[in-house]
Amino acid sequence: MSDEILMTRAGDVATVTLNRPQKLNALTKPMWGRLGELMETLSADDELRCIVLRGAGGKAFSPGNDISEFASDRANPAQAKAYGRFMHGTLKALADCRHPMVALIEGICVGGGLEIAAHCDIRICGESSRFGVPINRLGLVMAYPEIAGLRALVGAPVAAEMLLEGRVFGAEEALAKGLVTRVVPDAEVEAAAMTSARRIAAGAPLVARWHKKFLRRLADPRPLSEAELDEGYACYGTADFRIGYRAFLDKATPQFEGR
Asked: Domain 2-200 falls in which CATH fold?
């Protein structure tokens, strides 16, 4: 199944592609498993600065899970629970990834595809992209680990509207709901997403990882510890800080080292 989850790399930016265009990149159980393994590997790579996630073929990011698997792999609660372990492990790997992630969304992005995109830090889509969670028409629920990313992204009221109505809607409404960060002409989606990735990669990588960590932590209502508060000043002890402020004073482009 490795050819259905592709990874290419251009320096410090990796592109992960859901590569099943003949099925609009519908996700299978092995694809979920491989995607999770790959995300864990990429997260541990200190040389990496950004990850772009996309679907192959230009017509879809992903419509979610391949319905044809249901009869064989999700025909009862026990099978569904086993299947869910693959999905939920991958969603956790996406949520825990240290590096910034950009979703390059062309065409359809619904169901499980939207669950993946929701864990990206920036989501850039084309004007004709479509979004939604129409699983009520299949008699399915979005389980707790699956719903968490959507709720965190758009809040409970919008998540409830999407789940209860099961409506599929366009890019401008997705932007208004906070599902996507930016809408661009369809022909410009790839360029816009890659430009975003290069902007991220040009910044200090330790700073990007800290910002991701801090934003995740602030979603937790527990009071911050003294050690956590002190971590907000750790950047002043890094080589990248010295590189950054000296480059600013010299009106030069900083070349960060990630240390």
From this structure: 2-enoyl-CoA Hydratase; Chain A, domain 1 (3.90.226)
